[in-house]
Write a structure and sequence with these properties.
Elements: H1 3-11, E1 17-25, E2 31-38, E3 55-57, E4 63-70, E5 73-79, E6 83-86, E7 90-93, H2 107-119, H3 122-129, H4 133-149, E8 159-168, E9 172-179, E10 185-190, H5 194-204, E11 213-216, H6 220-229, E12 234-237, H7 239-263, H8 267-274, H9 277-281, H10 289-301, H11 303-318, H12 323-339, H13 343-354, H14 356-365, H15 370-385
Parallel strand pairs: 2-5, 8-11, 11-12
Antiparallel strand pairs: 1-2, 3-6, 4-5, 6-7, 8-9, 9-10
Helix pairs in contact: 2-3, 2-4, 3-4, 5-6, 7-8, 7-11, 7-13, 10-11, 11-12, 12-13
C-alpha cells in the first residue's frame, strides 16, 4: 500500500488534497509534518467569496495548519498560501480544501474542537488541545457563520414568539424571536424597543405578509410594530402575563389592606396579613386543605382581599374554557371587576378591554409565549455557564 494512501486514511483528507511528502520531526513529542497541495480544479478561488479569480502573488509563502492528532503525534499540514485578485474582495488568500479562510487550523481540527466546546466548554477544549481560549472562540464563530450561511432561519415563518431577555447587568436586553413550528430561536438583536422589532421586520422583508400569528407579552413596543408591519397577523397575548397582571393587582389590594390594619394599630393582625403574600399568589388547585381554609376565612376577616383573590382565580379559569364560553365568562368578569370597588382591578379591567381581541385569540388558538420563555431560560443558562458575555451576539444565533 502506498504511503500517501496510508497518510490520507490517517489524516482524513478528501480527494481534492494531494499529499506531496511527509516527515516526522520534534522531540520528545513527535510532529508529523505533511506537505500538501490542492488539485488543479480546486485552485484559484477566493478564500472569502469562492469566486474563481486570477493569481495575484505568492503571498507570504508556505503556511502551516494544525491538524487532528494522529495517536501521540501532533499533525501539521503545510501548503502554499498564494493570493488571488478577486474582483469583489480584492487581493485575498486563495481557498484551500483542507482549511477555512483566515484560520491557522484545518477544518477537521476545528470541527473536533468546536464539538468538544459544545458538549463541554471553551476553556476545557482549549486546555485539552493546548490552544488559547480565543482560538476556540474564533473557531466557534467560523463554524456558526458557515452553518448559518447554509440556511435561512427566516424562511417559511408563519407563527413567531417575540420576547426580551436580559444578557447583562444595567438593563442590557436582547430581543429574541422564536419560531412556534420548530421551537428554535430564528433572530435576536440587542435592545428592546420599536426600532429593534422593526429591525426584525426589515430582515424579514416581504415575508412578513406570511406571518399568521405573533405571540407577545402585551408590550406596546412589540404590538405597535406588529400592527404596522404585519397587519394581517393575529396577535396573541401570553396567558402567563395576563394572569401576572391579575396577580399584581391582587398584591396591590393586599398591601392596601395591610396598610389599613397597621395604621389602625392592629399590629398582630397586620403581621398575619402580611404573611399571606405568597399564599395568595398560588393557584387554587395547588393549595393544601389548610391553606384553602385560610383563604375561605378571608371572606369573613377581609372581604376586599377575598374578592381580589376570587377575581384572580376566575380570570385564570377563563383561559381553560372554549372560546364561546370564554367570551361570556370574560364579559361577566369585566363587569364584576369594574363594580368591585377595587382600584387595581378596575384598572386591570380597562387594560383587558384594550387587549381583548388578543386575549380571545390566545384562548381560541392556544398559543402562548412559552417557547420564547423556554429559549430565554436556555440563553440564561449559557450566560451563567460562560460567566457572562461581553458581546450580546454571543447569546444570539
Amino acid at each position: 500500500m502506498r504511503v500517501s494512501k496510508v497518510l490520507r486514511a490517517i489524516c482524513g483528507f478528501t480527494r481534492e488534497v494531494v499529499i506531496m511528502s511527509a516527515e516526522v520531526v520534534g522531540d520528545p513529542r513527535p510532529v508529523l509534518r505533511v506537505q500538501v497541495r490542492a488539485k488543479v480544479r480546486k485552485r484559484g478561488c477566493c478564500g472569502r467569496c469562492g469566486q474563481r479569480s486570477p493569481w495575484f502573488d505568492q503571498g507570504d509563502g508556505p503556511r502551516s495548519w494544525r491538524h487532528v492528532d494522529a495517536g501521540f503525534a501532533t499533525v501539521e499540514v503545510v501548503g502554499a498560501a498564494r493570493r488571488v485578485d478577486c474582483t469583489t474582495c480584492g487581493p485575498t488568500v486563495a481557498a484551500v480544501p483542507w482549511a477555512r479562510h483566515a484560520s491557522a487550523f484545518t477544518a477537521a481540527f476545528e470541527d473536533l474542537v468546536v464539538h468538544d466546546a459544545i458538549v463541554g466548554n471553551k476553556q476545557a477544549a482549549a486546555d485539552r488541545y493546548g490552544i488559547s481560549w480565543r482560538a476556540v472562540n474564533n473557531m466557534c464563530v467560523r463554524l456558526a457563520t458557515e452553518a448559518l450561511g447554509r440556511v435561512d432561519l427566516l424562511d417559511g415563518l408563519i407563527a413567531v414568539a417575540i420576547d426580551e431577555v436580559k444578557y447583562k447587568k444595567g438593563h442590557k436586553y436582547l430581543t429574541v424571536v422564536c419560531d412556534h413550528v420548530t421551537g428554535r430561536v430564528v433572530w435576536a438583536a440587542e435592545g428592546r424597543s420599536k426600532a429593534t422589532v422593526g429591525a426584525f421586520f426589515n430582515a424579514l422583508g416581504d415575508r412578513a405578509d406570511q406571518l399568521e400569528f405573533v405571540t407577545a407579552d402585551g408590550a406596546t413596543w412589540i404590538t405597535d410594530v406588529v400592527a404596522e408591519r404585519a397587519a394581517d397577523a393575529t396577535v396573541c397575548i401570553d396567558t402567563f402575563h395576563v394572569i401576572g397582571w391579575a396577580t399584581k393587582a391582587l398584591d396591590e389590594v393586599r398591601r392596601q389592606e395591610w396598610s389599613k390594619l397597621r395604621r389602625a394599630g392592629a399590629a398582630k393582625a397586620a403581621k398575619q396579613f402580611k404573611g399571606l403574600r405568597f399564599l395568595l399568589r398560588r393557584n387554587w388547585e395547588h393549595l393544601t386543605m389548610g391553606q384553602r381554609e385560610t383563604i375561605w376565612a378571608l371572606e369573613q376577616v377581609n372581604r376586599r382581599t377575598f374578592r381580589a383573590f376570587t377575581l384572580k382565580e376566575e380570570l385564570r379559569d377563563i383561559f381553560a374554557l372554549p372560546l364561546i364560553q370564554a367570551r361570556a365568562a370574560l364579559d361577566a368578569w369585566l363587569a364584576y371587576a369594574t363594580r368591585s370597588k377595587l382600584a387595581p382591578f378596575v384598572k386591570l379591567a380597562r387594560t383587558i378591554r384594550r387587549y381583548r381581541d388578543s386575549i380571545e385569540a390566545t384562548i381560541e388558538w392556544r398559543l402562548t409565549n412559552g417557547i420564547a420563555e423556554s429559549n430565554n431560560a436556555s440563553i440564561g443558562r449559557l450566560r451563567t455557564n460562560a460567566r457572562g458575555f461581553h458581546d450580546p451576539q454571543a447569546s444570539s444565533p
